[in-house]
Amino acid sequence: MPKKNLSPRLRDQTLQEQDGLQRKNPPRSSSQLRRGHFFRALFLRPVSPDSSPRQKDNRGILAFNTLLVVLLLSGLMWFGFSRLQYTFMWENVWIYRVNLFNGFLMTILISLGSLLLSTLLGVFFGLAQRSRIHILRIFSRFYIEIIRGTPLLVQILIFFYVIANALGVENRYTAGIVVMSIFSGAYLAEIIRAGVDSVGTTQIETAKAIGLTKPQTYRFVIFPQVITRVLPPLAGQFASLIKDSSLLSIIAIKEFTMAAREVNANTFSTLESYIPLAAGYLLLTIPISFLTKRLEKRFSYET
Amino acid sequence: MRLEIANLTKRFGDNVVLDSVNLTLDGINSLVLIGPSGGGKTTLLRILAGLEHMNDGNIIINSHCLNCPEQELLEYRRHIGMVYQAYNLFPHLTALQNIVLPLTQVHGMEKRAAEEHACSLLERFHLAEHAHKHPAALSGGQQQRIAICRAVAIKPEYLLLDEPTSALDPEYTSEVLDLIEELHEEGMELVLVTHEMGFAHNAADYVLFIADGGIAAHGTPKDIFETRENPRVNRFLDKVLKYTS
Fold this sequence. Notes:
Oligomer: heterodimer
Largest interface: A-B, 23 and 24 residues
Largest sheet of chain A: none
Radius of gyration of chain B: 18 Å
CATH class of the domain at 95-299 in chain A: Mainly Alpha
Low-confidence stretches of chain B: none
Low-confidence stretches of chain A: 8-24
CATH architecture of the domain at 95-299 in chain A: Orthogonal Bundle
Strand content of chain A: under 5%
Shape of chain A: flat
Number of helices of chain A: 13
Order of helices and strands of chain B: EEEHEEHEHHHEHEHEEHH
Structural class of chain A: mainly alpha
Order of helices and strands of chain A: HHHHHHHHHHHHH
Radius of gyration of chain A: 25 Å
Strand order of the largest sheet of chain B: 6-7-8-3-9-10
Distance between the termini of chain A: 7 Å
CATH topology of the domain at 95-299 in chain A: MetI-like fold
Helix content of chain B: 25-40%
Number of helices of chain B: 9
């Protein structure tokens, strides 16, 4: 509900209504009251009536609190490592930097490829669940349930050694991209189906009444609303896809995780091999978060 | 408006909602459908709007035959206006964009011309200040009025309204009814389902009382609301009008 258009009196009323937690339970002891305040402080940030809910934090406070969180986390890490008394030998790993970097590039390549292909699959099977063709609906259901219900590891093995082999797909990188896309596509399909379902039937009726064709209804009514709703879960799924690609090492694809594992096997410097790995994956997943946040803002509208 | 209903039957599964309905009317400008909930008013209106296929029989309204394939119904729907009880407007579009969308996408108007046309309509119905607001920022009454603007923007042959005020807070009812009344006076032909008996009495040329799967009674507003010969209608009206002075 847009608060900014309300008169001051109405605004106070709605604010009081938001405070329902306090008003609905009249008998309360002081400890209960304190618990209530605690709970609200933890999870219920008040929505300011004068600005959009996503208002900017004060810059100074933002910087200070960010610094505080960073310090806290690094303190924790530092404490852990100091107890371990681990001697870092970065120079051993530095020798293998080219291997790590090549693995990193391979992960980017596979991720990009499967990101595109899985989006196509996800949209297709997400919409196919509403298909008029009965067998296509059944096929989509089977696809989604089987893929979501079995381990990726098994899927990779079966796809590579059985299906790709039978089809004569020699290139393991192609096979890798395809199997990752099939895997991720099943999750995307469910996300997109749920998004499309969330657009009310009355709107589809209205679209019909004003004379839009089915494709026009999707283009002008359903998709614009679905995009805002599915962006956050899509971002999560894309980040998972990037990390899950590490499992492709079992079919001897030299991607980032495999490279780190090899470095570790050669140098016995476990942490020095794997810490860059974590940093590398963050480097890929954080931009996705950022990008989707921006897209979300661009497509958002008040409801 | 000329309306000819012959043997119209509509079933949802085993539930027969309209059972062999027959009616012929001519020279009607505003037809009002009243009756108890679940009696089939809305279903009849939806069939008239080309949104629902009939199981049997036929309807001929003006020159349109409604027992036809979906493709022809789509073409038919493009030339009439339809307003629902609520949630007519698309929430991701502003009021103006809501009106412009069918003009440009269905009726092939240029965007500029469509916007000008939409603006002049909003202006006329005192809604110009809301042109760039999204539906969530508008009251229920304003939303309905804009939905009616969208329906008339395409210059429809006639306007169908399905309980356009039933989902509104009472204070907004009159502004919506005023707008419908204004359109009616300008010569827009209407088919209206409503529970507002006062409005039905004033605005209708002809009233259909729909109950128990058919037209239980029909006549001029005078017949229905003043002479009151039909006991089934009277029972309904007594209940509806109990708390209105």
